[in-house]
Write a structure and sequence with these properties.
This protein is α+β, with helices and mostly antiparallel strands. It has 5 domains: 92 residues, 2-Layer Sandwich (Beta-Lactamase), CATH 3.30.450; 151 residues, Beta-Lactamase, CATH 3.30.450; 111 residues, Beta-Lactamase, CATH 3.30.450; 77 residues; 146 residues, Histidine kinase-like ATPase, C-terminal domain (Heat Shock Protein 90, 2-Layer Sandwich), CATH 3.30.565. Helices cover 41% and strands 20% of the residues. GO terms for molecular function: phosphorelay response regulator activity; phosphorelay sensor kinase activity; photoreceptor activity; protein kinase activator activity. Its EC number is 2.7.13.3. InterPro entries: BphY/WalK/GraS-like (IPR050351), GAF (IPR003018), GAF-like_dom_sf (IPR029016), HATPase_C_sf (IPR036890), HATPase_dom (IPR003594), His_kinase_dom (IPR005467), HisK_dim/P_dom (IPR003661), HisK_dim/P_sf (IPR036097). In the N-terminal section; belongs to the phytochrome family.
Length: 750
């Protein structure tokens, strides 16, 4: 909720947080809290004493209460030898503790001036720091007496199946271990997000906090960093008289690792406002980052022994590991759910991934908790669920950044990107975007504005004990700020949401690659089959032509050599010759059709009018025989095509116009182009609707062989094949007794 560079002194609230504070009706200056150096407040809680030892082995800093706790005046302690104060063996034990590979802090027992203390040791600002607390009654500490209760509590954690279940067990066990009146578990939304109370254990009469939300600014950035550094923080009495560190020269000692560190006045006021006298916080970390907190509240001052604090710290470490394991399990389950949904998406009746996505967009909404899902592919958008207004969707595309294939982008507040989205926040506040191809093909999950209304347990009419900063530092003030902060924002996208989307993208790419490989294999197989078919066609045709010529020649010789044949035999020999000739023509047509699929095309710019005139040199005789009037294309129409193949198209279509011309004049045929699509239109006998697909099949005639000028039924099949070779499209418009128009393109249609 703030911006900064990692320096505690430069954090400032962002515009949203500032506006929220104003809207909550308070005059609290949040920047004061955010800028407070809480690790250098220059004091400790008074139930312990602090000694900081310089590199020369002498005490350089002491707490002002050392006389009451140690029985030695601060003047006597300052400048004294640490070895003389603790003894050589004890000082050596301190160094061994700090040198052990167990962390930056250690706990051991020390005797000072005849008094026994629990000592916490660490290093700060180049000094060795020793914090001393009067020893507990039970000495020495026997771990075997204490461990069974901790072990029993940890064992109960193992039975929790969800994060909430485990936290519910944890707060109950920590409350039993420490005796606090209320123990709650917070879970934060993201690294710097607000917190929700997800589990609670409380004494009778203590107001419930379960389900409460608090704005992120209730725990400012520098406090979160300290929680990540220290597993535990204890306040034994909010009204404690702070023991100051002396001498106060220069910057106060860095107490980031301190167990006794005094607390910010803002936080103490917060606790007083809600009736809390003592507290303890246990950090819950995931991957070294703050995930949540166990917060303990006492209605009276409460001092915990060092052993109990160590047990709570151990409990926090174990709980963090358990929560991390549960989240990993939940993420694994989410991925398995994604794979199940993917299985239905990618094994359906569709042969291509985009087709499956567009047809099964309803399945996508089950992958990620969202209000709607949008699939954008090849410029087409399909929406499922409760999609935003189409105009809002169009505006969204301009704000999606460039993404590599399979990459994910999330946004929780589009209104912060562009104020134009403010009016549509209820239906579209945030998006999770998955890029399919690294360009414009996307899957987008959308969420509307989150429902920020909460039921707060505190009675608004109940008097509140106010401090100098007013009601802001209470749950009621936090509620107002929280609801103002989340306005115009969606429920945050979790790491699990992103993981599922990435898993989905990975599966899509894998499926696409697999299908591309399958298609490549099929293409190779088809290519081999075509090669084999071409080889067979040519070999069969050439092998067939030789015996056909022999049959025709033999029949002719018989006719010539036997002039006295009877009429029936002579007629049969003539039939043999005609059939052989027809077979030869069919084989030639078949060879020509096969050759159309071979060889490269050579597209050039061609004047359509000139090409038609050239085609009429071949088809003109047939057209003249039927008195068909030809209308040439308009001058200047240019097409890009293989010139030889275009001639074949025009000749075949013009000859067909002559063959199937109207029985009665006038008979016409026109060649032209409309918006890049060529046409040949006649007013002939037409083609019935039921047969309009059949006419493009090789050797398929709708009329007897010798009617309408004869032929083998190869002309339109050849036209279709040539158009296909040009990656064009061909279609018919025909009405019986009125005529036929053949439309075709010689390239992809625009």
């Amino acid at each position: 909720m703030g911006v900064g560079t990692g320096d505690d002194t430069v954090w400032q609230p962002d515009d949203r947080a500032r506006a929220a504070e104003v809207e909550s009706g308070t005059s609290f200056d949040l920047s004061v809290c955010l800028n407070e150096p809480i690790h250098r407040l220059g004091g400790i809680q008074s139930y312990g004493a602090l000694l900081a030892i310089g590199v020369d082995g002498r005490v350089a800093v002491v707490s002002s209460n050392c006389e009451s706790l140690l029985g030695l005046s601060q003047d006597a302690v300052l400048g004294s030898s640490a070895e003389a104060l603790f003894g050589a063996d004890a000082l050596a034990a301190v160094h061994r503790t700090l040198d052990a590979p167990t962390g930056d802090r250690g706990l051991l027992s020390l005797t000072v001036a005849g008094r026994e203390f629990d000592a916490t040791v660490y290093r700060a600002d180049g000094r060795l720091v020793v914090e001393l607390e009067p020893a507990t009654a039970e000495r020495p500490f026997v771990f075997s007496h204490f461990y069974p209760a901790v072990r029993a509590a940890l064992a109960k954690l193992q039975h929790g199946r969800t994060v909430v279940d485990v936290c519910a067990v944890a707060v109950a066990e920590i409350r039993a271990l420490t005796g606090y009146d209320r123990v709650v578990a917070y879970r934060f939304e993201g690294q710097a997000g607000p917190g929700e109370v997800i589990a609670e254990s409380r004494a009778d009469g203590v107001e419930p906090w379960l389900g409460l939300w608090f704005p992120a600014t209730d725990i400012p950035p520098q406090a979160r960093r300290l929680y990540e550094r220290n597993w535990i923080r204890v306040i034994h009495d909010v009204d404690d008289d702070t023991a100051l560190l002396v001498p106060r020269v220069g910057e106060p000692l860095d107490l980031s690792d301190s167990a006794l560190r005094t607390v910010s006045g803002f936080h103490l006021e917060y606790l007083r406002n809600i009736g809390v006298r003592s507290s303890m916080s246990v950090s819950l970390l995931n991957d070294g980052r703050l995930w949540g907190l166990i917060a303990c509240h006492g209605l009276a001052p409460r001092k915990l022994s060092a052993e109990v604090r160590a047990a709570c710290e151990f409990f926090g470490v174990t709980l963090s590991l358990q929560l991390a394991a549960l989240q990993d399990t939940e993420a694994t389950i989410a991925r398995q759910h994604a794979r199940t949904a993917l299985l239905s998406l990618l094994t359906g009746p569709y042969s291509d991934v985009p087709g499956s996505l567009l047809a099964n967009s309803a399945e996508l909404i089950a992958l990620v908790q969202a209000d709607a899902v949008l699939v954008r592919f090849a410029g087409q958008t399909v929406a499922e669920g409760a999609p935003p207004d189409p105009r809002v969707i169009e505006a969204l595309w301009g704000h999606v950044p460039p993404l590599a294939a399979g990459r994910v982008w999330t946004c929780e507040s589009l209104a912060e990107l562009d104020p134009a989205f403010v009016g549509s926040a209820a239906e579209l506040s945030g998006v999770l975007v998955l890029s399919l191809d690294g360009e414009d093909d996307l899957v987008v999950w959308t969420r509307g504005e989150r429902r920020a209304a909460r039921t707060w347990a505190t009675d608004p009419e109940q008097p509140v004990r106010l401090g100098p900063h007013g009601q802001r530092l209470t749950p009621r003030g936090s509620s107002a700020v929280y609801q103002a902060v989340v306005r115009g924002r969606c429920l945050p996208w979790t790491a699990g949401d992103v993981a599922v989307a990435e898993e989905f993208g990975s599966a899509l790419r894998t499926a696409a690659l697999r299908r591309a490989s399958e298609l490549s294999a099929l293409n190779d197989e088809l290519r081999r089959a075509n090669d084999d078919l071409d080889t067979f066609t040519h070999v069969a045709a050439h092998e067939m032509k030789e015996p056909l010529r022999g049959i025709a020649t033999t029949a002719a010789f018989i006719t010539e050599d036997a002039p006295d044949l009877d009429a029936t035999t002579a007629r049969r020999l003539g039939t043999i010759q005609k059939l052989a000739q027809r077979m030869d023509e069919l084989i030639n047509s078949l060879l020509h059709f096969a050759q159309l699929g071979q060889g490269a095309l050579h597209p050039v710019e061609i004047d359509l009018r000139a090409a038609t005139e050239q085609a009429m040199e071949v088809a003109g005789i047939r057209l003249a025989e039927r008195a068909v009037e030809v209308t040439l294309p308009e001058p200047g129409v240019v097409v890009v095509a293989d010139a030889e193949r275009l001639q074949e198209i025009l000749v075949n279509l013009l000859v067909n116009a002559a063959k199937y011309a109207n029985p009665e004049p006038p008979r016409t045929v026109a060649v032209g182009a409309v918006d890049g699509t060529l046409f040949v239109r006649d007013n002939g006998i037409g083609i019935p609707q039921a047969h309009q697909e059949d006419v493009f099949r090789l050797f398929r005639r709708l009329h007897p062989r010798d009617s309408h000028g004869g032929g083998h039924g190869a002309g339109l099949a050849i036209v279709s094949r040539i158009v296909e070779r040009h990656n064009g499209h061909l279609r018919l418009e025909s009405t019986p007794a009125e005529g036929t128009t053949v439309w075709f393109t010689l390239g992809p249609e625009v």
